Amino acid sequence: MPERPAPTRDEVLAYLHERRNWGRWGEDDQKGAINLITAEKRAAVARSVRSGRVVSLSRDFPKMPGPGNPQPAQHFVQVMGHSGTAGGATDYYGISYHGYQATHIDALCHVWDEGGMWNGRDPYREIRSQGTRYGGVENWREGIVTRGVLLDIPRFRGDPFVTMERPVHGWELEDVAAAQGVRPEPGDALLVYSGREAWQASSPEWNPYGAERPGLHASCLPFVRDNDIALLGWDLMDASPNEYGIPWTMHGALFAYGVALLDNCLLQPLAEACAEEGRYDFMLTVAPLPVVGGTGSPANPLAMF
Amino acid sequence: MPERPAPTRDEVLAYLHERRNWGRWGEDDQKGAINLITAEKRAAVARSVRSGRVVSLSRDFPKMPGPGNPQPAQHFVQVMGHSGTAGGATDYYGISYHGYQATHIDALCHVWDEGGMWNGRDPYREIRSQGTRYGGVENWREGIVTRGVLLDIPRFRGDPFVTMERPVHGWELEDVAAAQGVRPEPGDALLVYSGREAWQASSPEWNPYGAERPGLHASCLPFVRDNDIALLGWDLMDASPNEYGIPWTMHGALFAYGVALLDNCLLQPLAEACAEEGRYDFMLTVAPLPVVGGTGSPANPLAMF
Amino acid sequence: MPERPAPTRDEVLAYLHERRNWGRWGEDDQKGAINLITAEKRAAVARSVRSGRVVSLSRDFPKMPGPGNPQPAQHFVQVMGHSGTAGGATDYYGISYHGYQATHIDALCHVWDEGGMWNGRDPYREIRSQGTRYGGVENWREGIVTRGVLLDIPRFRGDPFVTMERPVHGWELEDVAAAQGVRPEPGDALLVYSGREAWQASSPEWNPYGAERPGLHASCLPFVRDNDIALLGWDLMDASPNEYGIPWTMHGALFAYGVALLDNCLLQPLAEACAEEGRYDFMLTVAPLPVVGGTGSPANPLAMF
Amino acid sequence: MPERPAPTRDEVLAYLHERRNWGRWGEDDQKGAINLITAEKRAAVARSVRSGRVVSLSRDFPKMPGPGNPQPAQHFVQVMGHSGTAGGATDYYGISYHGYQATHIDALCHVWDEGGMWNGRDPYREIRSQGTRYGGVENWREGIVTRGVLLDIPRFRGDPFVTMERPVHGWELEDVAAAQGVRPEPGDALLVYSGREAWQASSPEWNPYGAERPGLHASCLPFVRDNDIALLGWDLMDASPNEYGIPWTMHGALFAYGVALLDNCLLQPLAEACAEEGRYDFMLTVAPLPVVGGTGSPANPLAMF
Fold first, then answer.
1. Which residues from chain D sit within 8 angstroms of residue C104, using beta carbons?
2. CB contact C210 to A (< 8 Å)
3. 137-166 in D: which are within 8 Å (CB) of B?
C-alpha cells in the first residue's frame, strides 16, 4: 500500500553500510549518537518546559505470564517482623528485559549484522557471558536528557493502529512531522507511536515472538540518519517479516548509526498529552541502570511538557 | 560529641507518632509527600536549569560479591548468532536491591513500626508475597521530578566522612544549609552527603549488614518534617545502632511522613559538581520502574544543573 | 462414565477429615507417611532388584516457554577461558518448580485446607516468605527409597490417555492392580500412569493452568489411605474441576495422610519397562534437594528393576 | 611431607594427556566413565544391601550468605490463600551451584585444558550461553547407581582434617584402602573424605574462592585411572595451589578420563556410618536433574548399606 516506491534491497543495505557513523566520534567511542546531545541542548530543552506535566512512557514491569509474555519477569516479596511490631518488606526483581514486553533501552552492543557491531567491533570478541567489554549500557550512565518529538501515526492516518499490511514508511514520518508542525533537530529523541495498545486489544492472542509484527519499514532509516536522531523510541518496532530478508532493518540504526533504541514504550498517554498540551516536543529523560557490561536496561522514560 | 543536647527517646517517638502526615492527603493516598511536588514546582525547577550538566547519583549495579555485598546482583548474558553473521546479545538482571549496595528508592510500604505502615495501614494485611496491595512503587510511576538540594557534610566538617562517633544531627543540617546558602522548600528532595566512598575506602572490611553504620541521627527528623521534604536521599543512612533502641529512626520518615527514601546514592560526584557549579540546588529526576506491588525500585537518579 | 457410584461430597470430606493421620507419628512429626518406610523395607526392595535396569521418571528441566509452560525455568551458562587454553563453564538454574511442568516432590507444608496443614498446624504461622518452619522438604533429606508400584491405566483401558470425561476412580485402581497381579503394601510408592504424553500430543494448546485437567478422581483417596501408601506419584494429577467444589481432592493426601506427592512424573518409559520386565514393582529412589524450609524440590526419581 | 616422591610436572601432564580415555567409548560418547557401570553391576550392588540404612551425602542448599558463600542460592516462598481457608505455598529456587558450597555433580563439559574437553571436543564450539551441545548433564539422566567406596583420610591419619601442608597423595589412597580392607573395582564411585567440616570449623574465615585449599594431590590421578573409577566424590577438592602450575589437576579426571565429579559432598556422616556398619562399600545413587545442555546439577547423593 505504500504511496511511494519502497527502497530496493541494495538501497536498504546502503543505508546500513554506507551511511553508518562508525568512527564519527572516534574509534573507541562507546556513546554513539548520544554524543549529539550537548549540555546546551539539555539546558535548552529544560528551559522549554512550560506546564510541568509529566508522562511516563513505561509499560508495567511484565510479571504476568501470557501468550505475549512467555518469559515473565520475577517478583518475590519477603516480609520481616510480625503483627504489632516494627518490620519491613523487601523484594527481588528478575528480568530478561529484551523482547516485546518490558520498556527498555538497547545498549550499543545489543545487535549487529555481518559487518560487526557499533564502530566495527567484533561482537564475538567483545561480548562475554559475564558482560560486554564494549558498548555496554554503563556508557550512558549519565542518562539521556534531550528534546523528544512524538510522531502520532494513528492520529495522522485516522486508524487506531498500524497494520501488517501497511507499515510506517520514511516518507510518512516526514508527512506526520509536517502535519504536526514539528521538526526534528540533531540530538533529538524520535518517538513513533503506532497504536500498540489498540493493536493488542484487537489481537489478544498475538504472540510478538512469532514472525509477524506490524511496525516501521526499513525506509525510515534515512529519516533517522538525515535528522541526526540520537534515540529512537517506539511501541511497535521493525515491521516483520521484511521483504528484503535483512535480519535487522530499523534495529540497524543501533549498530550503524549509534542510535539508542527505546523498545516497547507506552505511547498512548504521551500522544494524548501532546494533543492536550498542543505541542509534540517535550523534555525526555531516560535513566538506564548502570550495569557494567549490560546490553541494555529496563527503564521508565519520562516526558515533561 | 553533639554540640547541642540530643532529643530524648520520647521526643523522637513524638517525631514519628505525633507529627505524622497520615490522612493529610486522604485516607487512601498512596503517594505520600510526593504530593507536595506540583506541576508548577516541576516547571520552575526545569526552567532553573542553566548549564545542562548532568550527574548520575547511582552506584554501579552491584554484581561483585564481597564483604559489603553478600547477596550480589545477577547478570547473565546470552549471545545469539555466530562469527560473521547477524546476531544479538541479551541479558538477565536479578536483584534484591534493598540493603546497602544498590542505589534504590523505597516505596511507602517498605517499612513500618508498631503503629503500622503509611497512613496507618496494617502491613500484614496489605503485603502479600506476590506484591503489596497498598503503597507500592507503581504509585510513583510518573517519576519524581523536583528541586534537589545537597547538603555536603564532609565539606562543612572538613573531614572526609561521617564517623560512628559523630552522626549527623538535625541542627547540623541547618548549619550546613546556611553555610551553603541554600534553603529547603516544600516538595524538595533533600540529599545528605556523608562521604560514603571515603568511609568505605578507610574500612574495606566493613560489612554494612552488621550492627554498626555511621549516618544520620534521629534528630534530623524535624528538619525533614518542618521543611516538608518530599524525598530524602543519602549515601549513608540511619546511624546505627541508635541510643534509643528504636527500630527505625530516620527510615521512619517513610511511614510517618510519607517521604520517599533514596538509599545508597552516589553523592561524591554530585558534591563536586555542586562546588564547581556554585549552586547546591538542581533539577532531580528519579524514575522508578513501575513494578505493580513492588516495595521499591533500583534507580539511576539524575541531577541537572 | 463411572461404573460404580462416586462418593458423595460428605464422603470425600470424611476421607480428608475423619481418616487423617494427624498425630499418628507424634504431634511434632515432620516426615508424614514416609515414616512407613523402614530400613528393613528398604533393604528388602534393594535385594529384590534383578536386572539392574534403571528408568528415570523425570521430565526435562522445563526451560522452553510455551502454552503449557508459562513460567519457564531459567538456565544461563557462563564460560571462562578462551580458545586454546584451560577453562570452564558454569551455569545458573532458577525454577518455580511447582505447577505442571517440572517433575518434583511436594513437601508436607505445600497445601492445606481450612482445617490446616499436616498434623493440624496453621500454615499462616508456620510458613514465612524465607521458608517454612514446619514440614519443609529438608525433613526428607535422607531421600525416599522404597518399593514402587506402577498402575498403568492406558494399558488397562486400552485407551492412550485418561480423558476429562472419565477420570481414574478408586475402584479402577483396584481393578488395575488385580489385572497386573501386583498388591500395594504399607510404605509403598504408588505411581499412577494416565498417559500424559499422549494426552498432550493430542491437545498441543492445552494449558494445564486452566481449569480443565484430566486425572485422578477423589474416590482414589481411600485406596491411598487403606493401603498405607507413603508416596503418590503421577503424570496427571487431581482431575479438575471436581464436582464437589473441594479445593484439594487427591492433593489432600498430602496434608491429611502425610503422603508425599511426586508431581509431573514421566511414566511412559516406566510403563514400557514394567511391561518388558514383566513386573510392576521396582525399587524407587527419590532424592530431594535439602532446602531448609522448602515447600518441595525438583527431583529425578529413579526406578530400578 | 610426602613419604614418597611426588610425580614431576611431566608425569602429571602424562596422566592427563597420555592416559586419557578419549575414544574409548566411541567418538560421540557423552557418558564417559559412567559407561563402566553395567546393569549387572547395579543389580549386584543393590543385592549387596544389608541393613537398609540410608545416608545423605548432601550439604544444605546454600542459602546463607557468608565469607565462604559469596553467591548464596535464592529461595523465595509465596503463599496463597488466607487464614481459615484452603491454600498453598510454592517457592522459587535459584542457584549457581558450581563452586564450593552446593553438593553437585560436574557434567563432562564443565572443565577442559588446552587440549580440549572430553573426547577432544572444542568447548568454544560446543558450549553456548543457552547450554552445551555436547557433554551436558542430561546424558546422565538415568542417574548413577553403582558401588561406592569411601576412603576415610582423617581416620587413617588420626588427624581431624587434611591440611594445606599435607595434601592427599595417590599412595595414601592405596594405603587407606588396604587399611580399611576395601578394594576399588571398575565402575565404582570413589569417595574421599578429607574432614571438611572440621577444617571449616577450624578456619571460620576461610574463603574457598581464594587461592588456598587443602585437598587431593595430582598424584591421585593414576589411582583413579588404574582402578577405572567412574565417579570421584569428595568434600575437599584438588589441593590448591599446586606446585606444577597446572590449571586443573584432579579435576582433569573429568575431561581426560570421563570421570564424573561429585563436589562438596558431606562425608562426615557417611564416614561414621561406614565405621558403625563395619563396611566401606555401599550402594550409591546420584540423580542429577535432567537439564538439557547443563554443565552439571545440584544433587542429593544417597548411600545405602
1. none
2. no
3. none
What ipTM was reported for this prediction?
0.97
Given the C-alpha cell 496489605, which residue does it identify?
Answer: B126
Q: Say if residues A94 and A73 touch (Cβ distance below 8 Å).
A: yes
Nearest by CB to residue D72, choosing from B66, B71, B129, is: B71
Q: Which residue of B has its CA nearest to D78?
A: B129
Predicted TM-score (pTM) of the model is 0.96
B contact test, residue of D75, D129, D209 with most B CBs within 10 A: D129
- Encode pLDDT of C227-281 as tens digits: 999 999 999 999 999 999 999 999 999 999 999 999 999 999 999 999 999 999 9
DSSP string covering chain D: --SSPPPPHHHHHHHHHTS--TTTT-TT--SGGGGG--HHHHHHHHHT--S--EEE--PPP--S-BTTBSS--EEEEEEES-TTS-EEEEEEEEEE--SSSS-EEE-TTSEEBTTBSGGG--HHHHEETTEESSS-GGGGTT-EEEEEEEEEHHHHHTSSS-BTTBPBPHHHHHHHHHHHT----TTPEEEEE--HHHHHHH-TT--TTSS-B--B-GGGHHHHHHTT-SEEEESS-B-BS-TT--S-STTHIIIII--EEEES---HHHHHHHHHHT-SEEEEEE-----TT-SEEE---EEE-
Residue D18: CB atoms within 10 A of its CB come to 9
Is the minimum CB–CB distance between A169 and chain B shorter than 8 Å?
A: no
**Chains contacting D (3+ CB pairs below 8 angstroms):** A, B, C
**How far apart are the C-alpha atoms of A253 and A232, rounded to whole Å?**
9
* Chain A residues whose beta carbon lies within 8 Å of the beta carbon of residue D124: none
Q: Do A71 and C72 touch (CB under 8 A)?
A: yes
B137 neighbors B297 (Cβ within 8 angstroms): yes
Give pLDDT tens digits for A8-45: 999 999 999 999 999 999 999 999 999 999 999 999 99
Task: Compare CB distances from C78 to A70, A71, A130 and report the shortest one's residue.
Answer: A130
